[in-house]
Design a protein that fits this description.
By secondary structure, this protein is α/β, with parallel strands linked by helices. The protein has 18 helices and ten strands. The strands form two sheets. Strands 6-7-8-3-9-10 form a six-stranded mixed sheet, sandwiched between helices. Strands 2-1-4-5 form a four-stranded antiparallel sheet, with helices on one face. The longest helix is centred in the N-terminal third of the chain and has 88 residues. The radius of gyration is 35 Å and the shape is elongated. It starts with a helix and ends with a helix. 35% of the residues are buried. The mean pLDDT is 84.
């Protein structure tokens, strides 16, 4: 119950963070510590008491030696017994209670929540990025940055309180105690602390740079390795294991080199710390012994000075290690912020509204989009698709068909012009609301590494099993789903499909994707080569099911197999990013243009 109380003082997954996180390490740390602001003063106070208790015990041990020396065995207990019992009470009860409270606050309240809070917020922010953002980076690199950012932030904050705050308090206490014994003992320690601080800063700055480069190389290596694993079928298909080994090896060589440079700093650090610690003993313990020979300090005070110095001697290595870790973590955080602090490229307008469930008319007005390049994409395209119309979209590869669909889905924003649905620009709609009213089946169907049921209900999480199975039957998927069995013995709709649906054939994946869109039942339907992975017999059956699903919907169907578009209400032909033909199937055949030529070629004329 005690642990649970401190663990639940902060909910790491509560609250909404608007906009990208701060792009600086300090700002990023401050943003994550905001939920703990009520607890940070308590953590600091209890840490202060813990450190003072530590130095106080060492000071009292010297006093105890002097009391024993001055009183002798016969009168010691009579003269000082009450004081010793009070000290014993502090050691046995007060000190353990303070130390325990310090750990509960640091570990249960702070550390147990902070790490996953960082990962959750980073993942949540990345999910809001555009499709183009993920297309331009390794999935492995992004996931590595999300996962390593949590421990780096948590470790930094934990060590700042547990080690640095404790150490600073201890050092100040030690200086005060030695100065109280004799100022000639406190001044050398203070001078040593200043010199030690400059040395730590010098090493730590170099470690921070080396750590950031090491973290970047580690993320690159992870990205290349994951890229090979996620595309293992292609690697095997082209027998490119050797090329993939070399591709990963170049990254591993860079990672090894940067790690070696990091370790050089660690070796330099070990040498420097031993030299600095020797100086500490010489400038504090030596003068204490000299002052004793002059009768200026007692034996107990010499013992206390020696104990404080030896304790600080051991702590100096710990402090240096902690500081190095802080700068190492700083490098990891800075490297991760390259991705995790990037602002969203596609954002909702301040007063974005959801799309009406009855939305259907689509207007494309003077849209130009070339992805920031000179060629490809769309060039001043205007198009009106009335509500309920079934439109076929035809053109050579690179003509702009997928670009138009991607703009409609707001995977990108048009560089010029606008797209409207029922008179409302899609930039004024919320992205979630827009996409909920559009059902799409693409030619590159990828499924989630979950059960068939989870993948189907992705289209409509509120649907029951009866509706799900009905959609699967319409997509001619139910029969093969019933035969599925994964490596863990899960069967049918509970069977898992592997990463990106790799355990299924292309046709099976596409039929599940079609069933998912049928289950979604959105008023706008986009089919981008939706039946390209199917054999002719299954394609004919599914086309009939799709025609039934199309009723009452606004449909955009892209297909290279023109026979699948013959029953569309209208066909638009794109070439080099422009609309060059527009009409029914029969009208376009009569024009003798590009559509007619493509039709003749497919018919073998």
């Amino acid at each position: 119950m005690l642990f649970r109380y401190f663990e639940t003082r902060v909910d790491p997954f509560a609250g909404t963070i608007e906009g990208p996180p701060p792009a600086t390490v300090l700002g990023y740390l401050q943003s994550h510590l905001a939920p703990y602001k009520g607890w940070l003063p308590w953590i600091a106070l209890v840490g202060l008491l813990t450190a003072l208790m530590e130095s106080g015990l060492i000071f009292y041990s010297g006093r105890l030696i002097d009391l024993m020396t001055n009183s002798g065995p016969t009168t010691f207990w009579a003269a000082h017994g009450t004081e010793v019992l009070i000290a014993l009470f502090v050691v046995l009860l007060i000190r353990p209670a303070i130390v325990t409270l310090n750990h509960l606050l640091l570990e249960q309240t702070l550390s147990s929540n902070l790490q996953e809070q960082v990962r959750w917020r980073a993942h949540k922010h990345l999910l809001g990025q555009s499709v183009g953002f993920f297309q331009n980076d390794f999935a492995g690199r992004l996931s590595n940055r999300v996962m390593q950012m949590g421990p780096a932030v948590q470790d930094s904050v934990h060590m700042a309180f547990e080690a640095l705050w404790f150490s600073v308090t201890y050092v100040i206490g030690a200086i005060l105690i030695l100065s109280q014994i004799d100022p000639r003992l406190g001044v050398p320690l203070a001078l040593w602390v200043i010199g030690y601080g400059f040395y730590v800063r010098y090493i730590a700055l170099h470690v921070g740079v080396a750590s950031e480069r090491w973290a970047d190389a580690r993320s690159l290596t992870t990205g290349r390795v994951v890229d090979a694993y996620s595309n293992i079928e292609t690697v095997k298909l082209f027998a490119h294991e050797t090329q993939e080994q070399d591709y990963a090896l170049s990254a591993l060589r860079r990672l090894r080199l940067r790690f070696q440079r990091f370790l050089r700093l660690m070796t330099m650090l070990a040498f420097g710390m031993n030299a600095i610690n020797g100086i500490l003993i010489a400038i504090v313990v030596g003068p204490a012994v000299w002052l004793w020979t002059k009768g200026a300090v007692s034996v107990g005070e010499v013992a206390a000075a020696a104990a404080l110095t030896i304790r600080l001697n051991g702590m100096s290595n710990w402090i240096m290690w902690v500081t190095i870790r802080l700068f190492e973590n700083s490098g990891i955080i800075q490297e991760g912020l390259q991705s995790l602090a990037a602002p969203h490229q596609i954002t909702d307008a301040p007063r974005a509204v959801d799309l009406s469930a009855q939305a259907s008319e689509i207007r494309v007005e003077n849209v130009t989009h070339r992805y920031g390049k000179q060629g490809h994409g769309l060039d001043n395209v205007s198009l009106i698709i009335p509500a309920g119309q079934k439109l076929g979209l035809v053109g050579r590869s690179g003509a702009g068909k997928s670009s138009l669909v991607n703009l409609l889905m707001r995977f990108h924003d048009a560089e010029k012009g606008q797209i409207l649905i029922d008179g409302t620009p899609i930039t004024a709609l919320s992205q979630k609301g827009l996409r909920q009213q559009i059902g799409m089946v693409s030619q590159n169907t990828a499924l989630l590494h979950r059960s068939v049921r989870d993948n189907l209900l992705y289209g409509n999480s509120a649907a029951d099993d009866a509706a799900m199975i009905r959609a699967a039957k319409q997509a001619k998927a139910h029969d093969f789903i019933e035969t599925l069995c994964d490596s863990h013995g899960r069967r049918g709709y509970n069977a898992h499909v592997g990463e990106r649906g790799v355990t299924l054939s292309g046709g099976q994946r596409q039929r599940i994707a079609i069933a998912r869109v049928i289950l979604k039942n959105a008023p706008i339907l986009i089919l981008d080569e939706a039946t390209s992975a199917l054999d002719s017999n299954v394609e004919a059956e599914i086309q009939e099911a799709l025609y039934a699903v199309m009723q009452g919907k606004t449909v955009i169907s892209i297909a290279h197999r023109l026979s699948t578009l013959a029953q569309m209400d209208r066909i638009v032909v794109l070439d080099q990013g422009q609309v060059i033909e527009d009409g029914t199937h029969d009208a376009l055949l009569g024009q003798g243009g590009l559509y007619s030529a493509l039709w003749a070629r497919q018919k073998g004329s």
